[in-house]
Amino acid sequence: MNSLKVDVAIIGAGSAGMSAYKAARKHTDRVVVIEQGPYGTTCARVGCMPSKLLIAAADHAHAVATGEPFGVTVAGLKIDGAAVMARVRRERDRFVGFVLDTVDGWPDAHKLSGAARFEAPGQLRVADTSVEAARIIIATGATPAVPAGWRERLGDRLVVNDDVFEWDALPESVAVVGTGVVGLELAQALHRLGVRVRLFGRSQRVGPLTDPALQAAVAGWINATLPYSGNVGEPEVDRDGDGVVVTWKDERGHGRRERFAFVLAAAGRRPALAGLHLDKAGIPLDARGRPAFDPATGQIGDTPVFIAGDADDDRPVLHEAADEGRIAGDNAGRYPDVRPAARRTPLTIVFTDPQMAIAGASHANLTRSGVAFAQGAASFADQGRARTMGRNLGELRVYAGKADGRLLGAELFGPDAEHLAHLLAWAIQRGDTVTDALAAPFYHPVVEEGLRTALQNLARALRDAT
Ligand SMILES: Cc1cc2nc3c(=O)[nH]c(=O)nc-3n(C[C@H](O)[C@H](O)[C@H](O)COP(=O)(O)OP(=O)(O)OC[C@H]3O[C@@H](n4cnc5c(N)ncnc54)[C@H](O)[C@@H]3O)c2cc1C
Ligand SMILES: NC(=O)c1ccc[n+]([C@@H]2O[C@H](COP(=O)([O-])OP(=O)(O)OC[C@H]3O[C@@H](n4cnc5c(N)ncnc54)[C@H](O)[C@@H]3O)[C@@H](O)[C@H]2O)c1
What we know:
This protein is an alpha/beta fold. The chain has three domains: 2-144 and 270-334, FAD/NAD(P)-binding domain, CATH 3.50.50; 150-267, 3-Layer(bba) Sandwich (FAD/NAD(P)-binding domain), CATH 3.50.50; 347-465, Enolase-like, domain 1. The protein is built from 14 helices and 22 strands. α1 (15-24) runs parallel beside α9 (318-334), α3 runs antiparallel to α4 (81-104) and α3 runs parallel beside α7 (181-192). It is globular, with a radius of gyration of 24 Å. The protein starts with a strand and ends with a helix. Bound molecules: flavin-adenine dinucleotide and nicotinamide-adenine-dinucleotide. Belongs to the class-I pyridine nucleotide-disulfide oxidoreductase family.
């Protein structure tokens, strides 16, 4: 048995763990990062980057296939699945390579390979190494949730996002289960690339938007955009030779069945905490067995244990994982002088077409909070620039406090929502009022003019409310 004594042990070398390492090293050199799998991070290897590469290919295919209204048609459109996946993997490997370069720059003494688990407070076990750590950061990420029994029943015909980006070619057909972010992005991309896709929703809910008007707009869009079966609960799945038969009831209660080459489980992601033996860590756990922590410091209770990234299930997106890692690393390094850090305005983007986004507080959060707020809406149906591009689908809602006119949040479904949501998130974080936002320049013709319409409507709603 080897033994190691450090000031800070970081479990997980993902985006959160890597920024925790950088921050902790500013305080001490006695740091170790423990990683059970390959380096490279979920984001670069199987998440943000390869999914956006696949979407980029799909967008090209879609543009070529839908040029007719502009008088541009291409005869003999061909989608070469092997070439599509070759680019996805080649570019993905490039992004992973940058991460590997960073890890290569760390001293060997700071890296330990294997799965970590707690043996006692301050005591970890990694294969045949015992690690005594004054402070510990849990940055273990999350893993795809697969409905019970599906792995056993479907074997290699069941895939999760990780598997998709290892494909050498595009399959003939895929049943995508789950209408969250992963399911929507991948289902639309595969559909546009010529794969026969059916998307299955457990409920009527599609995507993260909470405003009833936008939920309705998204529901109308999904039905028109790809084969979709909503409200089916958990579909029945059975292995059938080299494929899978999916059985479900449609909205009229009629039994339906369809055969696919693969089932893609996009049924959510769960914090990777199971193998850590948290019961031995000496930390407070909530009713679900998850660490009770402070998002401003990353600290779990008043213990020297911290948590960051998808492992804490708070804001499971890349820039927040990196922030949380930095905060936890800094505090673990300076412990017991634990300091709260400012968090950014929440921002969520779904890279479908049209995109969905939430900047600041969602409609559901505002309603739950009881704050008095007004809203302004705008549709993209007749928005000038969106119409020129033939991307005039969707709408947006902007919310502001009735008391002071400050922007509180927004939900968007429409063209270039990723950019509009950034503008809004920045304005919200600055504390801008609707008047401040309307005083900013708006060029012509741009989709931002659609945002201006919503802000003008919001200003009117605020005036009417007084
Ligand atoms: C398909 C997909 C697309 C996404 N797209 C986007 C996007 O466009 N934009 C965005 O902002 N976010 C996106 N995300 C989310 C983003 O990828 C995550 O929020 C982020 O990568 C989380 O980083 P992390 O460090 O918490 O976890 P990870 O990067 O997963 O790191 C956790 C590490 O811990 C290791 N580990 C786990 N348990 C142990 C143990 N016991 N011992 C040792 N090591 C352990 C794991 O092997 C892993 O390397 C996407 C996610 C997915 C799945
Ligand atoms: N663009 C991005 O930023 C991006 C992209 C992908 C993933 N992510 C991150 O990854 C996280 C996880 O995404 P996700 O889409 O896997 O999760 P999600 O929680 O967004 O959606 C899960 C979906 O699966 C459904 N579901 C759950 N259990 C089911 C079951 N047994 N049968 C059928 N359906 C079931 C849910 O109803 C829901 O529609 C997101 O919250 C997001 O933070 C971000």
